[in-house]
Amino acid sequence: MAKARPALLTAALSGAAVLGYLAYRAAFAPVEAPTEETIQFGENPAAEEAEHSDEPQLAERLPDFSLEALAGGQQTIMSWPGKPLLINFWATWCGPCVREIPMLKEFQTSQTELQVVGIALDRRDPVVKFADTMQFNYPILIGDKGGYEAAAAFGVNVYAMPFTVFTGADGSVLGVHTGELHLEHLQELTAVIAELRDGKIDVPMARKRLAGRI
Length: 214
What we know:
Helices cover 42% and strands 15% of the residues. It has 7 helices and 7 strands, in the order ααβββαβαβαββαα. By secondary structure, the chain is of the alpha/beta class. The model is unreliable at 1-53 (pLDDT under 50). Helix 3 links the parallel strand 3 (85-90) and strand 4. It has a domain at 68-214: Glutaredoxin (3-Layer(aba) Sandwich).
């Protein structure tokens, strides 16, 4: 019976994140109808029907948008030209989001090539308060105004968090992961980015690799 507890705890946390997200959207943003499919690159069973459905397509290129920076003022997502990006959408009330942040901080410390960017789909005050405690070592953009539009520009239907978009150094969108990131996901991303940089694989192959492993 004890072995079932971790699975039950994981399910409970995931459910809490979804419920928290829906409550936030109801209070601070217009609610959109949720979708049942996770949009990502690779051989997705829904891909064959995508051309004939209303489901969004994941963007091919990094879309140009600006959001409020943690220190104030607007900052464009194009602020890191020539760098692969890990763009993590999160919120202060999302348990899995908060749980993965220390790992992302460690990952950023180990990186000279890839840039982590956090986009908080949350109000400014709780984000600033949380950031004072967390001491982020990567940039945070505040998406209470424009964050959902930014997700839509990537072609992502937001119905749960966290979710993370990966781009290559040339601005190609390589894939999206819905749910909490784990170390093995970051290791695979690092390997794919290195092979892409060294010309061992091309962008379509990088997308397939990430779709199969992340």
